[in-house]
Amino acid sequence: MTADKLIDLIVARLVRDHGRSKHHWRRVVGPIRLYARETHPHCNWAATPSGSFQENAVIETLLDDWRMRYPLLNG
Question: Residue 75: its pLDDT value, please?
Fold first, then answer.
């Protein structure tokens, strides 16, 4: 799984479950930062959403679910 593919999956789920546009959610989710597997062996990625309080809460909950499914991403 790549970071770009993960963002696509996250955005698709947000659009389906909460409406709004892909562009809106892609902007709010922001980029996925990748870390070296040597220093982050359990989960090598992170995102910092930049939306409203409610949007950030929805995204953080979704990110927790995706971290369980895809803890390690490729570049």
Answer: 72
